[in-house]
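Note to self: the last two entries modelled the partners one at a time, which told us nothing about the interface. This time every component goes in together.
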Amino acid sequence: MKIKILYLILFFNISICASSNEILNESQIHKNLRCLVCQGQSISDSNSEFAQTLKMVVKDLIKQGKTEDEIYNFLSDKYGDWILYKPKFNYENFLLWSFPYLVLVFGGFIIVFLIRKRQKKT
Amino acid sequence: MQNIIKLITVSLLVFILGIFYLSLNRSSNYDTKFLVGNKIADIELKSLQNEKFFTNDDFKNNKYTLINFWASWCAPCRVEHPYLMMLSKHQHLKILGINFKDKKINALKFLEELGDPYHYLAKDSFGKQSVNFGIYGIPESILIDNKFKILKKIIGPLNEKDLEEIKEIIKS
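The predicted structure of the combined assembly is written out below.
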């Protein structure tokens, strides 16, 4: 009897974990999708027709077993990269992603140069 | 060494100003016209009138097909309707009307009142199919050829200019 109760508890725990995971993924995805007919809102923040439709589509895609990236790829094929708040890392966006690092390296280079110059003077 | 730093700083400044210049001169209006030239998603739509399903096979023999998303509750759809009626008389063009998030009774009443330009009448009750076509508002129309390639995408109601452009494309 005790073992049966243990199995039952384990089963419910697993199903609760699985469903909370799904809810988490879904809301995370909604937050990264731009509502194209709203002013600066994600579909998570919007109740527009478009946002509601997109939420249904995302739910269906998750049910079909699509991963987060597959969902983003599907939607950016249909609406362009503009629909994603976090742009994809590809050759078009290469500069966008790498520019802050280039500035960081360049800035570091200047700081080192200035410190060395000051040391030489002293 | 100082010259190199100056050169890099100036280059960076020119680069940043260039980005600003290009960005500020770019149209900030979003549209999905970049889909022109792409192949359309596989069609799988339920008929508005019966249990029939429309698939690509139903459209492959049409020289040109105009896919039009509409609804009886959509005011701009009324504005573009006369243009659809005109296009429906063209022999090289067939029109697929996709009734969007609408009630069947209202949709049929709309067509009874204003005329039925559609050779095929399908429904998208929940709007989910519209995402496959890159639709984000209605009315929207997509002109495709028999290879299912998008030739033109019209966002918003059709107007005189669109009518002439469509006629120009389908006359060939």
